[in-house]
Amino acid sequence: MSESAVGGVTVQDASKGALFVLFLVTMIDMIGFGIVIPFLTYLVEDLTPEGQTANIGLWVGLLMTSYSAAQFLFSPFWGSVSDRIGRRPVLMVGLVGNTVFFTLFGLANTLILAFVARFLAGVFNGNIAVARAYIGDVSTPQQLATRMGIIGAAFGLGFTFGPFIGGELSDPASRWGWFESTIFDSHPYLLPCLVASVLSVFSLIIAFRSLPESLPAESRTQKERVPWMTNMVHIMKSSVSMLKAPNVSLVIWVSMLFTFGFTIMHAVFILYTEMSPENGGLAFSEADNGRVFAMIGITGIVTQGLFIGPLTRKFGSRTLIPMASVLTGIGLVLIPYTEASSSWFHILIVSIIIALGNGIFQPSSSSFLTRVAKSNGYELGVVMGAQESLGAFARILGPLTGGLVWTLTVSRAWPFDYHTAFHICGLMMLLAAVLSLKLPHLEEDLQPIPNASEES
Fold first, then answer.
1. Percent of the chain with pLDDT over 70
2. Residue 112: how many CB atoms within 10 A of its CB?
3. CA distance 55 to 405
């Protein structure tokens, strides 16, 4: 790692190896989030005591919410610790935590143990902010945008590979004879969790060998310890202040509604697909669900890599935001109307619609928020921090809401049956689209996004 001076400030310049390690850390964090999606519902069903099956949807929502809640609560803590002891040890501690708690989740034999393991995995995966801080330490202003794109690319790939791994490696004893009468027979979801743990160990070894510290010792010793509660209060105050800020608040509310609606789907999608066709479902397996989410991830990557630039130049970010919201809403509402007789054809179309909408919305909303903040003279760090905090709140509330709504409605008659949660997803997208029509018009809105991949 070399040093350079920019504006009188010394900047540590990272090697390609260090940036590759950051890419791995972030991608494995997202694999950890996505790897349980295909089999979480099945695991909850296996662990649910007899007579309590009505609560399956609620437990699915709780397990998904626990991960995001832990990340939200502990991101400020890890950020503060990294300011005092350096980025490298915090990132490595996170990888150790991944290894331990991924494995513990796969070994869980009660819902409480699964919840604890999932929460603690989220605690140790709250270090994505530290990875961003590392990049900020080692990048000049000219390098920052491109290097932050590493985080966006890792998010996309992690969310693609995570569900695929989770689905393909679930319940191996029923698919491959050599796993019969082994621990993988009694713990059918241990194998994908072990794979995630092995990936963490691999990244830990590379980090130990190739990741230098980015924060100079003199900078670390000057940092004063900030209590966790002080950090949380500051985050809340900044977020609330941004919700009151003209123009900026509109963009944040639109993003919150979109995220809320999208993450409701995370909780209820597999609750729907794993149901028998007689009850309206598709009888999908864990592998089937993993392939669907991988397909969504791949389509999202292609959308942000190839389509977002031309679309932005043609329509502008402000126009794309409501269009993407409506498109995503249509896809989400159509999910439970899939015909079992042609399920893969319908799911393919619906997944492409959802992925296109989400792939257009995310970079468009982030780009538009950046431009609104700059045009109104707001500090960009405060604005983006508020968006991330409120987005995290939506990701916490979404799965919990989805699981609760499913539990209350699945056994009822249409329209307030298993379709209801997906209807709520569509309603949230419609509200986001309507609210986005009030967004201000900016002269530079027709300018292309400088680096669309980093906005993913």
1. 86
2. 10
3. 11
Determine contact, residues 157/20, Cβ cutoff 8 Å.
no
The dihedral over CA atoms of 105, 72, 198, 298, expressed in degrees to the nearest 10, equals 100
Q: State how far the Cα of 238 lies from the Cα of 298, in Å rounded to an integer.
A: 35
d(CA 136, CA 142): 11
Tokens 């689905």 belong to which residue?
A: 167
Determine the Cα–Cα distance for residues 203 and 98; give it in Å rounded to an integer. Answer: 11
Polymer length in residues for the chain: 456
- CA 366, CA 380: separation in Å to the nearest integer? 11
Please name the residues in contact with 166: beta carbons below 8 A apart, sequence gap of 6 or more: 34, 35, 36, 37, 38, 39, 192, 286, 290
Domains and CATH numbers, the chain: 1-226 (1.20.1250.20), 238-456 (1.20.1250.20)
Amino acid in the structure at residue 85: I
The tally of CA atoms less than 13 A away on the side-chain side of residue 129 is 22
Check residue 451 and give its pLDDT.
43
Q: How confident is the model over 34-82, as pLDDT tens digits?
A: 888 899 999 999 999 877 776 889 999 999 999 888 888 887 788 778 8
CB atoms within 10 A of CB 315: 16
Give residue-wise pLDDT tens across range 167-191. Answer: 999 999 998 888 999 999 999 999 9
Would you call 113 exposed, middle or buried from its count of C-beta atoms within 10 A (0-12, 13-18, 19+)? middle
Which one, of 42, 325, 385, lies nearest residue 192 by Cα?
42
Alpha-carbon 423 to chain mean position: 22
Is residue 401 within 8 Å of 268, Cβ to Cβ? no
Q: How confident is the model at residue 308 (pLDDT cuts 50, 70, 90)?
A: confident
- 450 pLDDT band (50/70/90 cuts)? very low
pTM of structure: 0.82
